[in-house]
């Protein structure tokens, strides 16, 4: 005979309310009626943006109102995170952008341990102005650990 006892314990649950979201600008265009709009990486369409915002920039979006609070240009000196590829998850400062017409543009990035690496332009997501990110960084501040120290 098997006796199953159910023990339910109550746990305090804390919900973090997200107040903003970072969105990368994919396209900037005018509607047929002449309204300027931005299209972001997650499919949002933002009407009447700041005229200084360009493609590849990052906008800080207030989730309660849906309005743009701030924006960061895709420029040298801004902090960024790599979202795809071999270097995904790494965080660093944009050092240089190599333009290759007809091919992939390459971005050179320096991380917190002064190691420089390069990746494609499509893999880079700006996460703040200057050297201060708008979001909390993962453990290790986005620095790639050597294979020997991983375990």
Search tags:
151 residues; mainly beta; OB fold (Dihydrolipoamide Acetyltransferase, E2P); SH3 type barrels; 2 domains; 5-stranded antiparallel sheet; 12 strands; 0% helix; 39% strand; disordered N terminus
Give a brief description:
The protein is mostly beta strands and 151 residues long.
CATH hierarchy: architecture of the largest domain:
Roll
Q: What Rg do the Cα atoms give? A: 20 Å
Helix fraction bin: under 10%
Poorly predicted regions: 1-11
Span between termini: 45 Å
Give the neighbour order of strands across the main sheet.
3-2-1-4-5
Structure description:
The chain folds into two domains: 20-71, OB fold (Dihydrolipoamide Acetyltransferase, E2P) (Beta Barrel); 79-133, SH3 type barrels. The protein is built from no helices and twelve strands. The chain has strands spanning 20-30, 36-40, 45-47, 58-62, 68-72, 79-82, 91-98, 106-111, 116-120, 124-126, 128-129, 132-133. A five-stranded antiparallel sheet has the order 3-2-1-4-5, with no helix packed on it. Strands 9-8-7-6-10 form a five-stranded antiparallel sheet, with no helix packed on it. It starts with 19 loop residues before the first strand and ends in an 18-residue tail after the last strand. Residues 1-11 have low confidence and may be disordered.
